[in-house]
Amino acid sequence: MSLKRKLLLAQVPLALALALLGVLSSAVTTRLGAEARLILADNYRSVLAAERMKESLDRINGAALVLLAGHVDESRAAITTNGERFERELGAQERNITEAGEGPVTMQLRAAWRDYSGGVADFLAAGDAASRGALYFSRLAPAFARANHLADQILAINQDAMVRKVDRAEGRARVFERLVTIAVIVALAAGLLSSVWLTTRTLRPLGVVAAAVRRFGQGDLKARAAVRGKDEIAAVATEFNRMAEGLERYRRSSLGELLQAQQAAQAAIDSLPDPVLLLDAGGGLSGVNGAATSLLAIDPDRPAAEIYARADPAVRAVIERLRAHVLGGKGAYVPKGFEEALRVATTPDGERILLPRAAPIYDDTGAVTGAAIVLQDSTRLFRFDELKNDLVATVAHEFRTPLTSLRMALHLCTEGVVGALTTKQADLLFAARDDCERLQTIVDELLNLSRLDAGQIDLHKRRAEPETLVGAALDVHRAAAEQAGVALSSELPPGLPDVFVDPDRLQLVFSNLLGNALHFAPKGTRVVVGARAEVPTTGARDHRVAAVTAVRFEVRDQGPGISTEHQAALFEKFFRVPGSPAGGSGLGLFIAKGLVQAHGGQIGVQSTPGAGTTFWFTLPTPTARD
Fold first, then answer.
1. Handedness of CA 217, 222, 228, 230 (dihedral sign)
2. Which pLDDT score is estimated for 594?
3. What is the share, in percent, of the chain residues with pLDDT greater than 90?
4. Which of 138, 362, 446, 579 gets the highest tally of CB atoms within 10 A of its CB?
5. Are the CB atoms for 266 and 287 separated by under 8 Å?
6. Distance (Å, rounded) from C-alpha 110 to C-alpha 112?
7. Most confident of 218-232, 322-336, 423-437
8. CB of 389 within 8 A of CB of 453?
9. Strands 603-607 and 487-491, how do they pair?
10. Could you tell me the strand order of the sheet in which 350-362 lies?
């Protein structure tokens, strides 16, 4: 028997229970309907007859009174018509006696009607009005009252009977309701239990197959599903056993050894504490370890479109960026610093700092077929870097006060405030003063570095003219330029728009760039500070009418230039070009970059060895809100 038939048979008890409930409900409904029909058949006709007889009596009595007033013809017709009507209704009542005591009252009504009808006949036969009046009050009125009273008794007997029967019907309805409720509960319970038992028995072999599949998936290649029968579950068990035997033979072959090697490699990846993802050329996920699923909320068991559904969008963005880098033929990807770190805050231990790395996966021909992405957990290194920055900031801050006092004392001595100096003393103090100034510069750079790393650079922006900014920067360095034998000049076209900057912070940028230019520019050359408006490269066909979004500043020198391999690292912390003259801490350009980026601009360098160097940076123009 097929599985479909077995499942259908399992529903038979429930169907039978529902059928029995239908039959019972139909019987109860029929019985209640019979009770209602019985009330109508037994009593309603008598009630109707009694009301009509009373109405006929009232009309006959009214006609008699009208006759006394002298209207003979109309009264005789009304009396005749209503007498016939009373006789019909009385006959109907005599044929519908159903209640105790109703028969004697009906017989009395018949006798009263004969008396009343005889009186009416005599009333009509009387010759004059005086005789009719005497007859009406002596015989006709009492007979009318008696007949009307007996009709009221018949009406009351049947109305009381109807009330009793309605109450009895309501009582039986409540009993039937309880019986039907109990029957529904019993029938449904019996039907459901029978259906569940039959369904469980039918699907029990499916549990045997599931247990065998689970054991096989856990590595027990001897697991088999022992299911008898000829239904679909037995067929699935047979196919599973056949597949298990084939896989067991396959594991014994050389391909099985390859599979074991792959599993060993996967186990090695799973043992890594850092998230690891293996992507194919199409971006599909071909491998992932446990750290990636737990830290990044990546679910490889979901459909391809939902693998990253629960992951942070920043995680997906980093993965796509690394995949595009590697599959674009750019080789391995190595992070430049903690500014590229991915912050994951979904762990119980708090935020994790992950540095992204990627390497290409090659096939036998050397073509890139995928990318291996590792998100290195650098949380401890990041914390150590924070501690180092805090230490540097603390030391620099503590140096500042005694260094200021030392500088002041040296300036007072070199200026002769405390007395004349010998030539040798002056030389030593001037050298000490220069070293103090250099040390003060280093302390200031360390403090600015700590503020940049902590994101605590407070900018007090306002509108400023580029001419004013460039002029102030040149004025500060004119003395140093004259001492170095280098000419300073500016190239500013008219009509430059204002920029929205913190002028004090911006002077640090100019100071670093001009200081480097004067340091490396040969004697007799020129250092030029220029500026020009920048317009968008897209969005307008005629750039002459496009809105200016930024101003580009440039510092050009005619020094030895910088080799290409060193230009990418110029703006990193503590980097100094190999072979450059001594002096400086290697922090100036890094600080300049941080300040420009804090303004919403960009900074860069263009240099050709032997042809000088141009450092440039952009600053935004004010918006409508500024």
1. positive
2. 85
3. 16
4. 446
5. yes
6. 5
7. 322-336
8. yes
9. unpaired
10. 285-288, 276-280, 368-377, 350-362, 342-347
**Could you give the angle at the alpha carbon of 422 between the alpha carbons of 417 and 424, nearest 5°?**
120
Closest CA to 372 of 256, 508, 253, 265: 265
d(CA 257, CA 273): 27
3-state secondary structure 268-290: HHHCCCCCEEEEECCCCEEEECH
Counts for the chain of helices (H) and strands (E), in that order = 17, 12
Which residue in the block uniquely carries the two structure tokens 């300049």?
592
Task: Using DSSP, state whether 487 is helix, strand or coil.
Answer: strand
Which alpha helices (DSSP H) does 415-522 contain, by range?
A: 423-454, 466-484, 503-520
Output the six-digit token pair for 620: 């935004």
| Residue with the larger pLDDT of the pair 481 and 229 | 481
* Strand, helix or coil for residue 346: strand
pLDDT single digits (tens) 454-511: 555 677 889 999 999 999 999 989 988 999 899 999 999 998 999 999 898 889 899 8
Answer for the pair 183, 24: CB distance below 8 angstroms, yes or no: yes
Segment 567-588 mean pLDDT: 72
pLDDT(539) > 50: no
Contact 603, 617 (CB under 8 A): yes
Residue in 565, 592, 593 with CA at minimum distance from that of residue 578? 565
Record the tokens describing residue 40, joined without a space.
Answer: 């109508």
Give how far Cα 319 sits from Cα of 38, 324, 547, Å: 85, 9, 36
Helical H runs in 218-231? none
Which ranges of 521-619 does DSSP label H, i.e. alpha helix?
Answer: 564-567, 588-598
More confident position, 38 or 210: 210
Reported as type and span, the H/E element at residue 67 is: helix 45-68
More confident residue, 555 or 41: 555
The structure's pTM equals: 0.42
